[in-house]
Design a protein that fits this description.
Layout (H helix, E strand, L loop, with lengths): L2 H16 L12 H5 L3 H15 L14 H12 L1
């Protein structure tokens, strides 16, 4: 899976499952303040990543994830 495919897949489930406006999905945007993902959403996102990409994220891996770009990189590092 290419990085572009990872980004596209993540954006798709954020829009469809979390009803996030696609215009807010920019790599530099902060996940909590700019995109509006809260701690409950994070749990659901971890489950969704497991379903879509076939691996389980440890919530400790998300400690240093601040921007959507950081999240893309984290997921891509697992799938390549």
């Amino acid at each position: 899976m290419t990085k572009e495919e990872v980004i596209s897949t993540i954006n798709q489930f954020l829009v469809e499952d979390f009803e996030i406006d696609e215009s807010r999905l920019k790599p530099e945007n902060l996940i909590t303040t700019d995109i509006g993902i809260d701690s409950l959403d994070i749990v659901d996102i971890i489950v969704r990543v497991n379903e879509v990409f076939g691996f389980k994220l440890d919530k400790n891996e998300l400690v240093n994830v601040k921007t959507l770009g950081d999240f893309y990189e984290l997921i891509y590092s697992h799938v390549r």
